[in-house]
Amino acid sequence: MDTLVEMQGICKSFGPVSVLRDVSFCLKAGEIHALMGENGAGKSTLMKVLTGIYPSDAGEIRVQGRTVDIRGPKHAEMLGIAIIHQELNLIPELSVADNMFLGRELTIGRTGILRHREMRRRTREYLARLNVLDIDPDCEAGSLSIGQQQMVEIARALSLDARVLIMDEPTAALTEREIEALFRLIRELRAAGVGIVYVSHRMEEIFALCDQISVLRDGNFVGTSRIAETDLDEVVQMMVGREIGERFPKRTTRPGEERLRVENLADSRAVIKDIGFSVRAGEVLGIAGLMGSGRTEIVKTLFGLEKKASGRVFLNGKPLTISKPADAISAGIGFVTEDRKHEGLVLGLSVRENMTLTHLQGFSRAGVIVSGRERGFVDGMISRLKIRTRDCDLEVKSLSGGNQQKVVLAKWLAIKPRVLILDEPTRGVDIGGKAEIYHIINQ
């Protein structure tokens, strides 16, 4: 197979922090190559170097045998390299079709007049390749579910006709049906000679889909193996440098008295109706269903993010009125949202500020933050959750996606919740981080 991309000796630092150290990576035509590592290992940074988002400090990149200096994302696209980011990059106020062709709009000659009809037609065509037939090209991107937005991102990357396609956690928000359609398309692209870099923490996907696997650890290249010649335990050992042990810890608590009861719950948009369940102290209740079935609407209505149309909620046997999130928080209910970027974090604030935002009164005296008390909690959470950050005063947006997710969890542990709602709590979290989160849930 022809070599599409070869990266050699790539180094990248942000200030005094070295993120990539002498990393090499090779992608061949017609190959699905998994790139794995713990959160903060450098996977996304390496791919951002390849797509021109970050310049490298040292090293060389060759595309189809030619040494190149990739000057930006647009230049990378011209070289036939496209990326689907872990964090969604659609502009919510623009239509799906406008997002699809943003920066490369179809126009009538040099008039600058947009060919809206053709843009809509091509948008439907690219979405249809993913078996997505229910998204209107004219609807605002912000009105779509997270899973639907992810499919639009994937379709946009397909529209570039790239020879190299980078997928960073592409299935994190997709239904099983959408994942099947995506896998079918990926295999078609491989057969057509496209080289695919697949970044994921989902081991079952890696072993079902990929041909090769390369592993990074702490910014260093660990090694490359053919999927047929390795197994799960070996890959985990390469990723974390240690044995994980039990990935799903045994339950150690016995359920106690009823803590929360929900009766006949319905939301104002009629997405859910007649929902009822109860949860006892020390119990973990799972809510399962396909994307769009109402799972998230249940917990958002319960937390006061969606307006309740009917139903009753009881906490410790007493009626509880929740009309807004502040009511839920005051009652000791925490909510780890599925969308950390828009709902779970304030990206411009620091790791420390995000962690303590839900419980400022607990870290204050006479309305003034007691820094020692606050930092004691933050340092403890960073250690307990193994959050990779050089400094708790760094902006939270500088952390990897998985470490951001741990900050969201820490934020709600700050209130010492009576009830903790977790909506996709391990989204974008590596295998070691998942085990840590499961242990915390068990505690």
Structure description:
With about 450 residues, this protein is an alpha/beta fold. The chain contains 15 helices and 18 strands. Strand 7 (about 165-170), helix 6 (about 175-190) and strand 8 form a beta-alpha-beta unit. The chain starts with a strand and ends with a helix.
Summarize the structure.
The chain is an alpha/beta fold and 443 residues long.
The value of Rg in angstroms is 23 Å
Give the distance, in angstroms, between the N- and C-terminal Cα atoms.
Answer: 50 Å
Task: Round the mean pLDDT to the nearest integer and report it.
Answer: 89
The major β-sheet equals: 6 strands, mixed
User: Which regions are unreliable across 5 or more consecutive residues at pLDDT < 50?
Assistant: none
Q: What amount of the residues lies in strands?
A: 15-25%
- Tally of alpha and pi helices: 15
Q: What is the subunit arrangement here?
A: single chain
Strand order of the largest sheet: 6-7-8-3-9-10
Structural class: alpha/beta
Proportion in helices: 25-40%
Number of DSSP E strands: 18
Specify the overall morphology: globular
